[in-house]
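Moderator note: this is an archived Q&A kept for reference. The question asked for a predicted structure of one protein chain; the sequence and the answer are reproduced below.
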Amino acid sequence: MDESDRSGKRLRTALAKWLAEPDESPVELPLSKVRTRTRRDFLLWSAGALFAREGSGGSFPTRP
């Protein structure tokens, strides 16, 4: 095996380890905090959808 083959294999291995997802670890949260975050995320998503709908209104032709 050539030296360049070894360094290329090491580089690919290091890159694969760097890009790998971290292991999942459970996080304990109080139920009230989970409900608050879920509600907030839903409201922000809904507001974003409404703004996107209104913003795209000018780009579509209107019916005669």
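Archived answer notes: The mean pLDDT is 83.
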